[in-house]
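Mods, move this if it's the wrong board.
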Amino acid sequence: MTEASPPAKKPRKGPSLRARLAFSVGLVVAVLASLEALARIAGAGDPTAFGGSRLQYQQIYPPLFRVDERRPDRARPRDPRLVDRSFSLRAPPGRVFVFGESAAFGLGLSENASFSRALERDLRALGSPLEVVNVGIVALDSRQVRFCVEECAKAYRPEWVVLHVGNNEFLELHALRFLEATGKKPFAVSLDENLRRSRLYLALKNMSIEARNRELTAQTFSTAALRLSERQLVETKGVLVSREERASGERRRTSRRRGSGSRPPSIATRTCGAACRP
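Not the wrong board. Structure tokens:
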């Protein structure tokens, strides 16, 4: 009699494809959740970085100034949106820093006709040697102005600070609403809106923005979104403009039509170039 051979063992069945996929997804979610928690604990992904706006022409990339290569005792703008004028790194003389947006910058005027230069002339007439530094940048809202104040106060400790803040708070919201109303809102913008609650995402995004803008040029900042005509904005469905704003726009247009050809251009018109054309 021959001894019967033991029955062959069945191969062990591994986890199903569905189980493997579920494990992989769970692992990825767990890793991302851990990284998100670490980012929040570390304070990474500041939503107010660069001034808190998603519009590049409103973003601030410090430092705003750098040491003048020709005169090491003075600083010159690093940001091309600032008036190209140097100032003393140390007092005396004391320094007055003027912060704001287009009105403080002097949009539509020669630099010599700006508020900062007028203030400096008045101070000279009173016998004061105070130096006035123009830190106005066109189209900023109060968040970016505050960012500039904090950065300059820490770096240069000015003796005096002047704030001139207008009504640019609507620009970022208006730009997004305009894209929605015209159906031109890119997928990347919608994705960014949904991911902005993640500190991990914001940390990676902020690092990318900082790396791209180590060197600033005039091409870094686009103000094309500011150059839409009033009629375009008024007639676009979904972008609400009050009656008062419409009436004000009509009055300005009527005034321009009446004034064209009858008077020589003002100093402001002759010096501002393309920046102040309607």
